[in-house]
Amino acid sequence: MTTDLDIAAGVKVPATTLAREATELIRDTTSELIYHHSRRVYFFGSLRGRERDLSFDPELLYLGAMFHDVGLNEAFRASGHRFEVDSANEAKRFLQAHGVPEDSVRRVWTAIALHTTPGIPEFMEPEVALVTAGVEYDVLGIGYGDLSAEEREAVVALHPRPGFKNRILRAFTDGIRSKPETTFGNVKADVLEHFVPGFERGDFVRTILDSPWTE
To answer: Helix 32-51 to helix 164-176 angle, to the nearest 10 degrees?
Structure first.
């Protein structure tokens, strides 16, 4: 059953067993910061989808939003994978354990794995595009004016964001500082360059010139 805590700006959290169990899992295994951020990603992604007149599966979008940052958890800091991949793999395990069809699992995995890779998700399935759109709205403010102040306020009233900018940057830093090699060629290199003394970002040109090829 959907409650007042699951509705904002006309968007409802799916009232399914899968969504409820995912919510409980994320609340139990991540910080309050990540929980509220993940829920806002769902609401803002849904609103962006409504604004763009996209047809999407709310449950798949919700699952992608809820799992998208779980890879920042301490349990994954020695994995050697990008945190996005760790997050996507955790979602995949959860969905497969619940007998979700493989095409749906693939959509959620892809939505999570690509959510920090701008310029690609927007051309993929709506659930993939809208996880990224929700993240970009909440973290970067991309498309901020495309939603009304009333819509924004309704979402933030349900899931507040006190000190969010600096707190999410700390969460990113803590989640990836132990595996800096995973930031090569992606936006998280910017985070480590700002907050981790001595970090040196990978250089794509230098990598080509220093490759073992002789020509």
So the answer is: 110
From CA 170, how far away is CA 179, in angstroms rounded? 15
Please report the pLDDT score of residue 215 as a whole number: 84
Structure tokens at 210: 């220093």
Three-state SS annotation for 133-196: HHHHHHHHCCCHHHCCHHHHHHHHHHCCCCCHHHHHHHHHHHHHCCCHHHHCCCCHHHHHHHHC
Containing 66, the helix (H) or strand (E) segment is: helix 58-67
Which residue type occupies 107? R
Q: Report how far residue 166's alpha carbon sits from residue 170's, in angstroms, rounded to the nearest whole number.
A: 6
Rounded Cα distance between 128 and 45, Å, is: 10
Structural tokens at position 47: 């609103």
Nearest to 73 by CA among 120, 128, 30, 109: 30
What is the end-to-end Cα distance of the chain in Å, rounded? 65
In sequence order, the β-bridge partners of residue 8 are: 11
Whole-prediction pTM value? 0.96
pLDDT at 1 exceeding the cut of 90 = no
The yes-or-no verdict on residue 27 having pLDDT over 70 is yes
Alpha-carbon distance 69 to 198, whole Å?
Answer: 25
Rounded to whole angstroms, the Cα distance separating 82 from 72 reads: 9
In this model, does residue 3 exceed pLDDT 80?
Answer: no
Sign of the dihedral through C-alpha 45, 46, 50, 54: positive
Distance CA 45, CA 56 (A): 10
- Assess whether pLDDT exceeds 80 at residue 80: yes
